[in-house]
Design goal:
By secondary structure, the chain is of the alpha/beta class. The protein has helices at residues 21-32, 51-62, 112-127, 131-139, 146-158, 176-186, and strands at residues 9-14, 37-42, 66-68, 70-73, 81-84, 89-93, 102-105, 163-167. Helices cover 39% and strands 20% of the residues.
Length: 189
Amino acid sequence: RSLRVLDGTVALFCAVSGVEPQSETVWRQADRYKVPRIAFVNKMDRSGADFFHVLNDIKEKLGARAVPLQVPIGAEETFKGIVDLISNEARIWNEDDQGMTYQIIPIPEDMISLVADYRMQLLEAAAEYDDGLMEKFFENPDSISEDEIRCAIRKATVNMSMTPVMCGSAFKNKGVQAMLDSVCAFLPS
């Protein structure tokens, strides 16, 4: 019943289990009531966590246009942060204050090509929803500003053409603030 009155929602997925049957049921109901959503892949610190498997699960099982806004740095016990694909910066959470603060660090060397690929996918997906961005994308993708990317993602999310995907570990407060910021930035008011 609540899906009839919601303006937007955050769909939670376990980084280990991926898309489960109950998730599919709720997703289909949200489609029926035209509720825009953001996906959050939780429990990235658990054994067996695989963000990219869950991302593919969302695409295949739910038929969603799932576009990651973040790429995790590590997984399971080595999960320590994310690379924000919009700002193109890496963030590592501080363990001392239980994830309340983070440090911005250079993107790890072994992730540079992976981040570049997923950032290009994000820019392409954002450009599909704005003709001005499409021109910029073909001329020079790096000329697209963060505000333009956010605006295009918001449009695509609200009209349910795109599902932004984020990740973290709610238990350790990693990624929660970024997800809440995305609720404000991309879902209807």
